[in-house]
Amino acid sequence: MGSVRRQVHIARPADDVWAVVGDPVTIARWFPGIVDAKVEGATRVITTASGIPMSEEIVTNDAIQRRFQYRLTAGLVRNHMGTIDVFDLGDGTSLVSYATDGEPDAVVLMIGGATGNALGELKRRLEGDRDLSEEEE
Amino acid sequence: MGRKILFVTTDQQRYDTLGCNGGTLSRTPVVDALAAEGIRYERAVPQSVVCMPSRSTIITGQHPSTHGVWMNGVPLPVDAPSVAADLQRHGYRTALIGKAHFEPFMDPFGRFIENSVARSGEETLPSRWADGTTGPHRGFDHLEFATHGAVGMLHYAQWIMANHPEAIGMYYSAIDALFNVNAAGGGDTDAPQVKDNPIPRDWYHTDWVADRTIAWLDSVAADDDWFCWMSFPDPHHPWDPPASEMGRVDWREVPLPAGYPTDRAERERILDAKPRHWRLWYDGTLVSNYEAPKAWVPATLTEDQVREVNARNAVECELIDEALGRVLAAIARRGWTDDVDVIFTTDHGELQGDFGLLFKGPYHVDGLMRLPLVWRPAPSAGRAPATVTRPVGLVDLAPTFCAIAGIAPAGTMQGRALPVDDADADARDFERVLTEWDSELFGVGVHLRTITRDGWVCTAYKPGYVHDGTEGELYNLTDDPLQRHNRWGDPAVAALRSDLVADLRDHEPAPHVPRLELEAPV
After folding, report:
1. Could you identify which of A66, B18, B67, B413 might form a hypothetical disulfide with B62, taking C-beta atoms 3.0 to 4.6 angstroms apart as the criterion?
2. Does B129 contact A at CB distance below 8 Å?
3. Closest chain A C-alpha to B205 CA, distance in angstroms
4. Are B300 and B264 in contact (CB under 8 A)?
5. Distance CA B164, CA B154 (A)
6. CB within 8 A of B148, min separation 6: which ones?
7. Which own/partner pairs from B424-431 qualify as long-range (CB within 8 Å, at least 24 positions apart)?
8. Are B67 and B76 in contact (CB under 8 A)?
9. What single DSSP character describes residue B176?
């Protein structure tokens, strides 16, 4: 079982960060390599820049804990779980953790690497005062 | 009009695979002739023994610590220094054809430019340069990529898909179903990463790289200055050259390499005198890096498998030599020969049976560290042929390209233009070369720092998964050319060891800040 965790400090309140992370359709705006996301109930289908569609099951979307979890249900990875947590640091800023677990290890590392890149983009855009939750589709 | 530069790299090629370096298995008359007319380096050392860090050193002129690509899977930032950008800025036409690998191949999200150029249909794509401007990706006007097979998003794979789709499955599958380096065996001996490949020779990636290089050169105006990096994916595993060429070297007649201790007990005694991860890998207990098949146990390697791998490797080296010959003929037809500098080298070596091992990893010995390097200066420069015995590094290539072009090397470069003979090397203090290894994969960390100086190679280990930071390796390259006798703990050379380690520490390159993240296995 592979397990990769990435994290980033964002100089924005946790509620602002959660407004983006907790809205599953916004992922295509801050995750480099995901060019489209469609959500229907507990299912999200993302499309990567290389043209690969991937179906995901939304497992947790908890605004109180500020935790979002999803599972890739097809493709390269088995027993996948992606977990994004937004922590309020109490000083108007946040820590965002993005964990990827699953098999095989090498694929988890590929996905985990991309999540680190995504957190960097999330920080860049949120600290740049761009309200990702209200961007046009 | 200045001097033009043909920079030729192979992938994972040993020093002793060239005839000019004493090799007898593969016939390499083209490179041998370049060496006879030019400068042959007897101690060219990489700054890393795996692809991405080493290639990043070549293009930036920096050590891995500084450019930040500390292991395979860490992408070189798009705005890292690039000698190609420096040359392009000064009017050179620039191309990179073949294997790049500054960015990970394993890219399901299609995030990296190297993996998207072919699909874009563009000759290159814009990216941010080190000076804050925007220009062609890493300074190359023209990009055409290939790697070790016909699957994926690169130009060669797209070409095979469009023109010869039946060839896709002819290659060995370098990656298994679990996305690990494949351990499956093939050929006559069931050696790992070996397959009989029925692909016609002119569809094989070596000839494709040469064909595309010739096509690009044909597009360049007669009086343009140009820098062309022709980068062959071979002789890196998998060892699956076209079956039609296998008659060149009969593996049954291949002698076992000098580095292969035939007596098992002796082999294991040698390994036991090295730091622990050597024997742990040999026994299949610890595979510390991604570059070797996780499911393969080196202790199972047979003499016949060593012979077959070496035979196939030799065939691949011959095909490269012949492909280079075709490119040089094309250059001659354009009337450019007198004004073209040719530099031939590789990114790192291959164990190829040494110590009973194959592939590569955190093992700083000649199999991986002693590289072929030949520089044939433009005949118009009037440089005398020479052999350089002093240590030089791949970090010296970027400033060499600048010197050939007549431009000042960027201040970010850490190497110096290659010496043209030993007197030049001595005059400019070419005394030491540094090599680094860092890997951290699922909790297993290995960290080595090596200095090559005064005929010795000295490796100091940092704390890691199986090392406490006191381990090391020390070899006398003259008395012990196969590095079988680790003298790290020998009191007779304790003072020398201390001096080498102190020198190593004094010259450690500045680290990249912030540390770059590992983003893929490779």
Report:
1. B67
2. no
3. 23
4. no
5. 15
6. B11, B171, B174, B205, B233, B234, B236, B237, B238
7. B425/B388, B425/B390, B425/B392, B426/B390, B430/B390, B430/B391, B430/B392, B431/B390, B431/B391
8. yes
9. -
Give the phi and the psi of residue B44 in degrees, each rounded to 5: -95, 130
Which residues of chain A lie closer than 8 angstroms to B290, CB-CB? Answer: 106
Express the helix, strand and coil content of chain B in percent, nearest 5 each.
35, 20, 45
Q: Is B337 an interface residue toward A (CB < 8 Å)?
A: no
**Angstrom distance (rounded) from CA B64 to CA B52:** 9
Q: With contact defined as beta carbons under 8 Å apart, do B288 and B276 qualify?
A: no
- What lies within 8 Å, CB to CB, of B510 at 6+ separation is B65, B66
Q: What is the mean pLDDT of residues B298-314?
A: 98
Write down the ipTM of this complex. Answer: 0.88
Host H or E run for residue B392: strand B392-393
Give tens-digit pLDDT for A5-14: 999 999 999 9
Give B14's pLDDT tier (boundaries 50, 70, 90).
very high
CA distances from B353 to B256, B306, B345, B365 (A): 8, 6, 21, 13
Which residue reads 């000098």 in tokens?
A: B258
B108 HSE (CA, 13 A, CB side): 21
| CB proximity A53 to B under 8 Å | no
Query: Rounded to 5 degrees, what are φ and ψ at B232?
Result: -80, 135
What is the length of chain B?
A: 522
Closest CB from A34, A76, A110 relative to B521? A110
Q: Are B103 and B76 in contact (CB under 8 A)?
A: yes
Using the Cβ of A15 and the Cβ atoms of chain B, whether some distance falls under 8 Å is answered with no
Neighbours of B280 (CB within 10 A): 16
Closest residue in chain A to residue B109, using alpha carbons only: A33
- What strands lie across the sheet with A2-10, from one edge to the other? A2-10, A94-103, A78-88, A67-72, A53-62, A43-48, A34-40
Structure-block tokens of residue A37 = 């996301």
- Residue count (chain A): 137
CA angle B187, B189, B191 (to 5 degrees): 80
- Which residue in B104, B108, B517 is closest to A50 by CB distance? B108
